[in-house]
Design goal:
globular; 2 domains; about 45% helix; alpha+beta; about 10% strand; NADH Oxidase; 4 strands; 9 helices
């Protein structure tokens, strides 16, 4: 099988609502999830988890939680993309460990200043952004940053809700990597936001601090699996340029 180019994969990808009753290779789907893990992520925090479901009983349970929509009911496999903002301390420490491993070599001694800057980022700035208590600390930080912003450019999204959005944006990028990777090998997907998140978390025994970003169904498109032609508003309505 010849993989599609990036442009070919993006054009091939459609939200498929009905799949053939034909198996797809679990290992290949897993490889596409490895590609998902290479997606850009804010501050390299990687506040995500991917739950790859191929057990038919679990798929049936999740299908009910997805309101028995065809994209879930006919899926051969499912992937649940989950955000884990609550793991920010663990992920920050992983970055600190990586920095030490990368810079603690004789040939890297000349980059000591760069190492200190990187460590300061994860040991000082990240806790400043992510730490909160009942939303109170976040509001205080927000007020302080807005005042400072009167005098110079500053990062303003410092509330708990803001960091939640950041985690979801990064996880969404991972999901897109996954879907394009699937399209590249001729597999189909459908990102779903129609589901009972509480039931999904119970089925998968997820942490109460986790949040569902989206559920992506997987399979091979049925002849009638794509509902109509692709529609996009005219590109000129969404494209803005300062080129002369």
């Amino acid at each position: 099988m010849v993989e599609k180019t990036v442009s070919e994969a993006i054009n091939y990808r459609r939200s498929v609502r009905v799949y053939k009753d034909e198996k797809i290779d679990t290992d290949q789907v897993k490889n596409c999830l490895i590609n998902a893990s290479l997606a850009p992520t804010s501050s390299n925090m990687q506040l995500w988890e991917f739950y790859h479901i191929s057990n038919k009983n679990t798929i049936n349970e999740l299908s009910v939680a997805c309101f028995d929509q065809n994209a879930a009911k006919t899926a051969q496999q499912l992937v649940v993309f989950v955000t884990r903002k609550d793991l920010w301390r663990k992920r920050a420490q992983s970055n600190v460990d990586f920095i030490h491993a990368s810079f603690d070599k004789p040939e890297m001694a000349k980059f000591e200043k760069r190492k200190k800057m990187a460590l300061s980022y994860y040991q000082k700035l990240i806790p400043t952004l992510y730490f909160d208590f009942l939303g109170i600390v976040g509001l205080i930080k927000f007020a302080i940053f807005q005042v400072v912003g009167l005098f110079r450019p500053i990062y303003r999204q410092t509330r708990t809700s803001d960091m939640r959005v950041v985690a979801h944006k990064s996880t969404g990028l991972a999901a897109e990597n996954f879907m394009v990777s699937m399209a590249a090998i001729g597999y189909d997907t459908c990102p779903m936001e129609g589901y009972d998140s509480l039931r999904v978390k119970k089925i998968l025994k997820l942490s109460r601090n986790s949040e569902i970003n989206m559920i992506v169904s997987c399979g091979l498109r049925d002849e009638n699996g794509v509902y109509g032609d692709r529609f996009r508003v005219p590109f000129e309505e969404v494209y803005f340029s300062d080129h002369e």
